[in-house]
Amino acid sequence: MAGCSGESGSSGSSGDPGGSGEPAASPEPSGSPDPSPSPSEESGFSEEIRTVENLARFCGYREGEPYEDAAEYSGDGPHSMVVNLSEERTDLLAGNLFRVQDGEPYSDWIPDEPTEAELLGCVEGIPGETPVDTCDYEELGVMPGRSVLTLPLHDQTFRITVYELSTAAVVAETTLEPEPNCPSGIEYFQLEDEMPNLVYTPVVMSDVEDFLTDIVNAPAR
């Protein structure tokens, strides 16, 4: 798998999902992925929730199901929360793969054990069909004779749903519509000749953090 760094074709500024303006030539996915296969898709797969990463299943194919072993959501904040993000960077769709967010401030909210979690935050990217800009990506030695890859930028909205884990009740929800911004990096499979045809606006993590911080710190609803 190879990666390219990019910048907006119209503004010339580098794409940065955090809004810092600093390009990243080789992006690393945030957090730890949980493959979340369904039992019918993988022989011998266990539904047992052993780690907080396994809770990503309740944002994926088990969304809407309660995790009855979770801690009770009650009293004043702060409350424990596990936040999972799924977003698309290109039209080579990742397929609803949720990843646990473990950087700050999320690391302060994550308990050691899944049974200690009160809340589950699911942040899901919904790719749009509207082109809003173009993005230029510098070639990093993987496409001979080609120095710049220009791709159309499409919009992407993000749906945030916060669940009470033990009951699957919705505690809060909102939708974010980020301003057009090029993803700071894209990945593709060179050996399989899978090249992206377009890219999607990334999530602005500070907006996610602002929304979720209020819920973590507030009394139980």
In a nutshell, what does this entry contain?
The protein is mainly beta and 221 residues long. It has helices at residues 106-109, 205-217; strands spanning 2-8, 32-33, 81-86, 99-100, 119-138, 148-164, 169-176, 185-188, 199-200.
Q: Can you describe what's shown?
A:
It is a single chain. The chain is mainly β and 221 residues long. The protein contains 2 helices and 9 strands; from the N terminus they run E-E-E-E-H-E-E-E-E-E-H. It has helices at residues 106-109, 205-217, and strands spanning 2-8, 32-33, 81-86, 99-100, 119-138, 148-164, 169-176, 185-188, 199-200. Strands 1, 2, 3, 4, 5, 6, 7, 8 and 9 form a 9-stranded mixed sheet that branches. The radius of gyration is 19 Å and the shape is elongated. The relative contact order is 0.25. Mean pLDDT is 80; it is low at 9-30 and 35-45.
What is the general shape?
Answer: elongated
Distance between the termini: 45 Å
Percentage beta strand: 25-35%
Low-confidence stretches: 9-30, 35-45
Secondary-structure element series: EEEEHEEEEEH
What's the tally of helices?
2
Helix % is: under 10%
Number of strands: 9
Overall SS class? mainly beta
C-alpha Rg (nearest Å): 19 Å
Summarize the main sheet. 9 strands, mixed
Q: Mean of residue pLDDT?
A: 80
Primary descriptors:
single chain; 221 residues; mainly beta; nine-stranded mixed beta sheet; 2 helices; 8% helix; 31% strand
Helices and strands in order, then pairings?
Elements: E1 2-8, E2 32-33, E3 81-86, E4 99-100, H1 106-109, E5 119-138, E6 148-164, E7 169-176, E8 185-188, E9 199-200, H2 205-217
